[in-house]
Amino acid sequence: MRLIIREDPKAVAYYTANYVRQRINEFKATRSRPFVLGLPTGSTPVEVYWHLVDFYKRGELSFRNVVTFSMDEYVGLPRTHPESYCSFMRRHLYDHINLRSENIHMLDGNAEDLAAECQRYEDKIKEVGGIELFLGGIGPDGHIAFNEPGSSLESVTRVKTLAYETVLANARFFGGDVNKVPKLALTVGVGTVRAAREVLLIITGAHKAVALAKCIEEGVNHMWTLSVVQLHPSAMVVCDEDATLELHVKTVRYFKSIEQVQEQLIGRQNIGLKGSISKLSHADAQGLYTSAPQPPSEPDSNASAEPDLSEEMGQSDVDEEEYVAYSDAGKSFKATLMPVDDSAGSSGELHDGASPSATRAAVAAVGGPFQIPPSPQNSTIC
């Protein structure tokens, strides 16, 4: 799972919308092979939709060959009601883009047979080949769509009774009157979301910090249904700084360091959109890696002291090896930070117990050693 941390909700919205834009464009959808997109409702994705509309109006994105499935709908609320999710999706997205009407799929909360309506929805998803990317928001209690705490992690589209906390949270859309909020909803299941080939969750705000911590740092638990993304082979969470308030500092640093390594050491041009290593050209490899140099035969008294990497990592000492693993052209590589004792002299012997100021980056690779060039003094290594 990838965790992308941005400064605030606006930055999160732009990153998410831009990612969706790139995924659709990269997919090169056709009418017979559409890009199938699962979409959420609620306040979190609104600004994402604004950016998507803007991309469309600027000619940077087309929805002509996109098929959409909305996550949920209230039971008993007319589709024309301003707070129905049908109205929500049209108001914020569908009425402003070139999405074909036959490609828009929404649950009908006024169907005579609600169970049959849910089965119809699941069958339609299978008919179009499954969902390529499911975009989702979460509630403060960690629910995905209307899959409240305690929902089965294998559940599919069904009728769901809303928890009281959810009713309270949604009362703001009904003039603050909880009595006007529907108590039942149709929702895709946790299993429906898991079946998508990719899941992208948006989490913003300090009020969702506990939910994010449960998702990232604790185990899979049906009381926090968003935690199921830990089991997904291609899942990403995009959050703001406030949402990380309950995470351990080392967790935040770890995920930030992944992006830093990709940007500074591997190069964005070599990273696929989903974060995988695409390829390293010969020129890129030459620029990134050099043969491990031999240590000088005599200490240079005029040489400046080497940077204290442990201080940059927020540690008082280097107790464990820090490494980044990746692969290219069938070969696996591992870049490891290892202590080097300056007192080793010409032998350049590596051993434990070296002082932090003597730490150097040494690298072991399949097929021969190489070394990552030193990071700039103002960079952070986590």
TrEMBL record:
Please give the superkingdom of this protein's source.
Eukaryota
**Which principal EC class is assigned to this enzyme?**
hydrolase
Q: Where is the composition biased (Low complexity)?
A: 354-369
**Chain spans, region Disordered:** 287-321, 338-382
Domain Glucosamine/galactosamine-6-phosphate isomerase intervals: 8-237
Query: Keywords assigned by UniProt?
Result: Carbohydrate metabolism, Hydrolase, Isomerase
* GO process terms (BP): carbohydrate metabolic process; glucosamine catabolic process; N-acetylglucosamine catabolic process; N-acetylneuraminate catabolic process
Q: What is its EC number?
A: 3.5.99.6
One GO location term (cellular component): cytosol
Q: Name one Pfam family in it.
A: Glucosamine_iso
Describe the function of this protein.
Answer: Catalyzes the reversible conversion of alpha-D-glucosamine 6-phosphate (GlcN-6P) into beta-D-fructose 6-phosphate (Fru-6P) and ammonium ion, a regulatory reaction step in de novo uridine diphosphate-N-acetyl-alpha-D-glucosamine (UDP-GlcNAc) biosynthesis via hexosamine pathway.
HAMAP family named in the record: GlcN6P_deamin (MF_01241)
The name under which this protein is listed is Glucosamine-6-phosphate isomerase
What organism does the UniProt record list as the source? Coemansia reversa (strain ATCC 12441 / NRRL 1564)
